[in-house]
Amino acid sequence: MNDTGHATTAHATPVPAWVLKFMDAIDTLEFDEGFAPLTEDTDMFFGTAHVHGVEAIKAFFVKIDEPLIIAHEVLEFWTAGDGVRLLRGEATMARKTDPDHVVRAPFMHIFYLDDEEPVRIRELRITAGPLQTDAVM
Asked: Which of 131, 124, 134, 133 is nearest to 46 (CA)?
């Protein structure tokens, strides 16, 4: 709700450069510029995992992505009020030990920004997968 009591809506917008750098950092595990919006106070929720602080978030991505050849593609990006940014994408991945077995997984990121210039992420919520829907149906 905004200050007039009306619900705010999200609007499709071009993907900002900081988001593309963030996705590239996850793919390459080279975090410097791409992870600049994260701070020691950033909270990330990835599925049921809660990770606090930029260094712990880096370690989390190294743990889950280092064994993979992975590429994240941003399909849609929306801007909402109060620093909320929504991203829908798809990850293409394969184990480095089995590069010919490629899978795709949908994902959503919700960014809650503290600041816009420079961008500072207060909280990030990520949902990903499942990789094989028939496994849960």
From this structure: 124
